[in-house]
């Protein structure tokens, strides 16, 4: 495996030991099994600082390109461990076409459902609460189950054992602050600026991460209000669902736009080979979910409500169903990799 060859050279050199969590993890091993390669690949955040610091890149005969090698191994692990198998590989190769077709198809489905007599106020006048629950409950739970099956296979492959609260604290702290996107340097990583440092990618990821969590919290708050307090939608702007959802949608949209811009500035030779379509499709889809939600809220009560609601719900349903096979899964794998890293350090340090 190419990733193993390059990792063994890096382990002999150790020049980049302070760059991110990958290199201290490399130095703790002498022989790298397949599970070790999977763990290191998912621990890598593709900040690319090691590439620009390396003295063994082309035209040197070692021809090191560790960011690309680990990105390839990482994508291969997601596709291999995804359940059911095969779907992830198709999406990564033709992501934009698959996502666009599903969004359009589901939008037509929701438009047809909305043509039936509705009940309630606001969006429920177009699509009943019962219909939304019947469609989105399995669309949310089944992908989560698929991700759970995949993560269980990942944990076995990388040799993970029982976790402690200290492991969770360390991993969640690293994930929440995205400290590895700093590349071990105070000025950030080298993702889009070559040998210069930048925090732009870290900020864009944080906007997407926290925007998504706010949107999820908004939906959860609406669910609690509906079922626990019998307070049914539509909700006013100063209600909890709106105070969480509107900033969340803005962060999600801005963060995804930032990631797409940064992709254009980054060197494609340091990214994941053959998966550009799937990566772009995921960012476009997530950004469109945030943007369409904001526009839908802005035009509520007008003749545009019905078509935009169908399009927005089509995008949301597509996002949920593709989550185990798109780059959305990388968040779960990365947290698992950070947990395994925290566990490994704890065990080795006694």
From TrEMBL:
Classification of source organism: Bacteria, Pseudomonadati, Pseudomonadota, Alphaproteobacteria, Rhodobacterales
Transmembrane segments: 97-117, 123-147, 207-229, 235-260, 281-299, 305-325
Gene: tcuB
Protein name: Tricarballylate utilization 4Fe-4S protein TcuB
Origin: domain of life: Bacteria
UniProt organism field: Thetidibacter halocola
Entry keyword set: Membrane, Transmembrane, Transmembrane helix
